[in-house]
Structure formats: C-alpha cells, structure tokens
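Issue 218. Parser rejects a valid record. Input:
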Amino acid sequence: MLILASASATRKALLDKAGLRFEAKPAELDERQVENQALEAGGDARDVALLLARHKAEVVSSSRQGDLVIGADQTLALGLELLHKPASRAEAVAQLDHLRGKTHRLHAAVTLVRDGHLLWSDLQTAELTMRDFSAEERDHVLDLEGEASLGSVGGYRLEGPSIRLLETVAGDYFTILGLPLLPLLAALRDIAPELLNARA
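Output the parser choked on:
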C-alpha cells in the first residue's frame, strides 16, 4: 500500500490527479522541534525541509509495516529567515508585507520510507518574487482567498487569487505546491512500479 504522511489537501489532490492509489495518514510530529534540531546542527531551510519530510514518513512507517510511505514538506526562506504558516489574517498581512518587493525561495522535499528505512529522497527549489503591491491589492486578495491563506506559508497560494501578488516565478509548479511530483513518480517507477500501476 502507498501511504501519504500528510494532511495537505493540495498534496492529496496532486497524487489523486496523477492516478495514484494511496491512503493519507498525517504524522503526529512536533515540526518546530525537528526544525530547531536541524538549525542547531548548522542546517538551513533545505535541511529543515528534508528532515521534516523524512521524519513524517518514518513516524507513519512505524505503524505501517511493509507499506511504502511518502513524506513531504516545504520551507519558505527569505534569505536566512524561515517563515511559517500564518495563524491569523493579521499574520498573513504581516508575512505578505514582509515578502513584498522581495525574492524568496520555496524548498520542497519528498522522501520514500518503508519499515523505517529511508529508500529515497529529493529536494527541489523554486524562486519567487513578489510585486510591490499596494495594501488595497493585498487586502482584496486576502478577501478572495479567505481561510485558504492561513494554510500556506507566506500567506499566499500560487494556485489561488494570490497569484496576482507575484511578479516572477522560477521553478517547477509542483515544487511550489509542496510536492516535487515528477521526481517522485520517477522514484516510484524504480522502487515500486506495482504501486504506481495499482488500479483504483
């Protein structure tokens, strides 16, 4: 069985649209603790994304013997600063204002784990630049996004009205959504073609 160690509706939709048969089982994990471990060890935003993706898959794998578990995570880095999902509209406003007119990077990691053993991992990076948008534009976009803006780091979604706030995007679309799908599909073809070809 193929398991996605995530509650992300976006990641579930990507796998579903790719025709994969899978089960979603979110990992119970203190993400900030894992992040701090990576940073204290001298890691950066890329290391945090990889470590979180691996830990999520390992946690779920511990209770799913024999199953292949996909772990995925994404970090947003503005220079050396890491941003997290906003907890409120006010925080979304603050994050968007902080990103306005600047270039930031999204690092998306994906791993495959079976029986607690890491079989494969990959990390992709995309670079995005925000427009120097007005407060009125920002507020209108947040009105259109509604609660969805709270589910995305930076307070924006490329696949939603927030696209209006971006000036340039360099990188893979799936990486920006938080799941490097093409490398994952390639790995599944090598590691578990029977799962890739399973019928719903």
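Fixed in the parser; the record now loads. The CA atoms of residues 58 and 116 lie 5 Å apart.
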